[in-house]
Specification:
Blueprint (H helix, E strand, L loop, with lengths): L10 E3 L3 E2 L2 H11 L4 H4 L1 H5 L10 H13 L8 E11 L9 E13 L3 E11 L5 E12 L3
Antiparallel strand pairs: 1-4, 2-4, 3-6, 4-5, 5-6
Length: about 140
């Protein structure tokens, strides 16, 4: 799909993905974020969550990957333009399965290309929202 094809209010649902312990350990290694809330079960038992949680940025990365798998902008993508209003609203635990709904929130014509804003709401298998954000993507026009 190209810039012109997206209309405010259009919705798209991603597939789902289960977060594993390997995801958390690998993300800690790549990012350098070895905070004990993510990697130390004994420490995490004494936190408000009662067990280890996934990194917020890992959750964001997984959601980004799920949106990419929709292949909506495969032929029109110029660049990922940015993220606005990002919030991690509930923890993601090992074994949680997350998916996302994208809703076209708005568009901005930039002349020879356009920016499409997608409101992204990710939830777990209990239908609890775990992440909300606005993803902005620079897209080619058809003409």
């Amino acid at each position: 799909m190209f810039f012109e094809d997206f209309l405010p209010g259009m919705k798209f649902e991603t597939s789902a993905r289960t977060v594993t312990e390997a995801d958390i350990v690998n993300f800690a290694g790549i990012s350098g974020d070895w905070n004990r809330i993510h990697v130390d079960e004994e420490f995490a038992k004494n936190t408000r969550f009662g067990k280890r949680i996934a990194h917020g940025l890992l959750t964001l990365t997984i959601v980004s990957g799920l949106t990419t798998r929709l292949r909506l902008t495969e032929d029109s993508l110029i660049a990922f333009y940015g993220i606005d209003k990002l919030r991690f609203t509930n923890p993601v635990f090992i074994g949680d399965t997350i998916k996302a709904i994208l809703e076209v929130e708005g568009k901005e014509d930039k002349g020879d290309y356009g920016i499409v804003a997608f409101k992204v709401t990710a939830s777990n298998q209990r239908n609890e929202t775990v992440l909300v954000a606005t993803f902005k993507t620079a897209l080619k026009k058809r003409t």
